[in-house]
Amino acid sequence: MSNVIKAPFAKTDHHNKKMIEIKQYFLQQPDVSPLEQSEQENAQMLIDEAKRQAQLIQQEAEHYYHSVKQQILQEQEQWQSEKQQLARAAQQEGYDAGFIQGKEEALRQYEQLIHEAKRIIETANEQFYEQIDAANETILLIGLKVAERIVGEKLTENHEHFLSLVKQAIKEVREQSEVKIYVHPRYYDWLAQQKEELKAMFSEPVDLFLYPDEQLQETGCIIETPFGRIDASVDTQLQQIKEQLLERLEEATS
User: Ranges for the Flagellar assembly protein FliH/Type III secretion system HrpE domain (predicted)?
Assistant: First the structure.
C-alpha cells in the first residue's frame, strides 16, 4: 500500500505536487471471451518466440565453444607429430643443439596458442551470457507491453473496470474529509454519475470534487487530499512494476 505524503493544502497546480504511487492490482474476470483468449495466445506466442531465440543463441555459443576446443585438440596432436619428427631429424643429423632450440621455440608457440584459445573461449562465454541476459530482459519487456495493451483495452471496453481502479485508490484516503479526483475527460462525465457511490466509501462525510484533466493519460487518475496525493494511473503502476522486475532481474544475473 502506498504512503500519504504530508503537505500544505494550497491552491497549486496538482501536476507539480510530489507523487505517491500505490501498488498495482489486477482485474479478475470470471469468463474469458474469444477475443481475450486470442490476445492471451498472441502474448504467449511472443514470449515463446523470445525464449526460442534465446535457446538458439545458447546453442550457437555452445557450438562455437566446442569448435574452438576441437581446434585446440587438433593443434595439440599436430604439435606432438611435429615434435616427434623434429626429434627424429635431430637424432639422425646429430643437430642436438638445433633440436633443443627448435623444441623450445615450438613449445613457446604452442603456449601462445593455448593462451589465445583460452582468451577466445572466455570472450565467447562472456558474449553468450550477455546475450542470454538481454534475451531475459526482452522477454520481460514484451510481457509487460502486452499486459499494458490488454489492460488498456479492458478499461476501454468496460468503464466498470476504471471505476474499480478509482475505488482502489480511494481506499487509501477514505479517512479524509476533503478529496479531489482528477481524471481524463474521456471518463469524467461517466465518473461524475458515480459520485454518490464513491462518497459512500468514506468513513465520514466528505467534500468530494471531480475534475477533468486533459493532460492525463486516458487511464490516468490522480487523487488529492490536504495531506498529499496518490497517482493511481495504470501507466504509473505498470511502470513501477517494470522497474521492480528489471531490478530483480539485474540482481539475479549479477
Answer: 114-241
